[in-house]
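Sample 1 of the test manifest.
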Amino acid sequence: DIQMTQSPSTLSASVGDRVTITCRASQSFSNWLAWYQQKPGKAPRLLIYKASNLQSGVPSRFSGSESGTEFTLTISSLQPDDFATYYCQQYNDYPWTFGLGTKVEIK
Amino acid sequence: QVQLQESGPGLVKPSETLSLTCTVSGGSIRGYYWSWIRQPPGKGLEWIGYVYYTGSARYNPSLKSRVTVSVDTPKNQISLKLSSVTAADTAVYFCVRDRSSGYWPGEIDYWGQGTLVIVSS
């Protein structure tokens, strides 16, 4: 299985801050990596696919990038609606695996 | 707009079989891969397995001996059966669709709202 190590597990930030979340894969694979946002009691929502492609309807302050086995989600200017938990997911191979999540909290 | 709705018992006894159904509306299940994903309370996400609309399926090796995922095309439904459950199977279970084709993998674009299943006597 491909293991996804996500960091940090918790992040405290203020509105307007630039936020970066990282996922490191246990092995190299093509860019079949997605980022999801989840709010309490809700299903996750797709933000980024194929490592850097913005899903339709998602604000442009969200972006994704990759460098080798490291994948990054960046929120350029944190908004009140962005306080949530974020997960990375590799879908290069089965079983699909997810990072353990990053909770973005209000500082 | 495609919508997925999970349904089934919210309480299952240990050693019994968990059975859930996902009803798809606003679109056909034909041509797509459908998966079940679960999330224990306060924890992360675990992929359980997928079924293609043709009926072919694949499972997470960690659950493979206990899982069956199937499809009912005329009813536009996907089903999950998980046998010999324990408290560790307590989770919110999500039905999802992904954008895979026969040529490349696909990310999850639609999620059901999820249904909480508690395993307890």
